[in-house]
Amino acid sequence: MHRAFRLLENSFDETNCYNWIEDGKQQHLANQESVRLALENFVSAGRINGSQLKEHWFPTVDAEVFISHSREDQNLAFALAGWLQDTFGITSFIDSCVWGYAGDLLRQIDNDHCWQRESRTYNYRSRNGSTSHVHMMLSTALAKMMDKTECVIFVSSPASVTTEGSIATVSSPWIYFELTMTALLRVRPIEDYRVIKEAQTRDFSAKPERLPIFYEASFDSLTTVDGDSLNKWARRWRNKVWAKSYPLDILY
User: Fold this and answer.
1) What integer pLDDT is reported at residue 125 of this predicted model?
2) Separation between Cα atoms, residue 31 and residue 1, nearest integer Å
3) What is the pLDDT of residue 28?
4) Do the Cβ atoms of 225 and 7 come closer than 8 Å?
5) What is the pLDDT of residue 14?
6) pLDDT (0 to 100) of residue 48
7) So what's the pLDDT on residue 187?
8) Long-range pairs, 96-101, Cβ under 8 A, ≥24
């Protein structure tokens, strides 16, 4: 990660960006089948190789921007990914594109290893263990992807951030984890990503009742941007106002 940004609410009008939403979805649909096959291969074998599964959880994705968002803001995340692709040719990785598979993975593991036939119930202790393993693998993979991408953008909205006085909180543990990682991850020099780029020239989808747990959120490591910032960025890129050869340089 080289830089991280907080995109303020109302930067995109969902009613006027259908094409961007569809383009954003299409960027990630290609990975779904490979992830599904990986789940079947590594879970049905009886013994689960966590490290190998984690490597296949996120197939090699040539993404430049990591997009973090709440479940309710998925269309905004898709719109941002589509806008980045259409405007600058920038590819994005949206964290929520694999949440549904986390649920699938848990179900397969629990059915194979936690189901008690006699009582027709799941073993509580075993199921807690399987959940911990899956969440740890997912968190590790998310951190690796954040480190791998050049830029992180957090989509901020009332659905993801609650403000009381001067205190901002988030209720999603995934958002809290990703915000924390923006402060803990090494800030890599831009040359690290440009060299890689030149050389090179994936049940949480359901809506469960949310537990009343909140985490105090810090945005100190994120630069705030809004719709005006995005428009200015796009204009400067189109008009070549700056002598920059790469669009993210203008954003920085």
Assistant:
1) 87
2) 22
3) 76
4) yes
5) 63
6) 64
7) 92
8) 96/69, 96/71, 97/28, 97/31, 97/32, 97/202, 98/35, 98/57, 98/58, 98/138, 98/202, 99/71, 99/204, 99/205, 100/203, 100/204, 100/205, 101/32, 101/35, 101/36, 101/39, 101/57, 101/202
**CA–CA separation, 190 and 176 (whole Å):** 26
Distance separating alpha carbons of residues 135 and 173, to the nearest angstrom: 11
Give the type of residue at 34.
Answer: S
Q: Which residues of the chain have pLDDT under 70?
A: 13-15, 30-61, 97-101, 195-215, 241-244
Query: What is the per-residue pLDDT for 205?
Result: 47
> Do 160 and 77 meet the contact criterion of CB atoms below 8 Å apart?
no
Give first-to-last CA distance, the chain, whole Å. Answer: 13
Q: Give φ, ψ of 208 to 5 degrees.
A: -75, 165
- Give dist(CA 9, CA 79) in Å, integer: 13
Give the residue carrying structure tokens 């810090």: 218
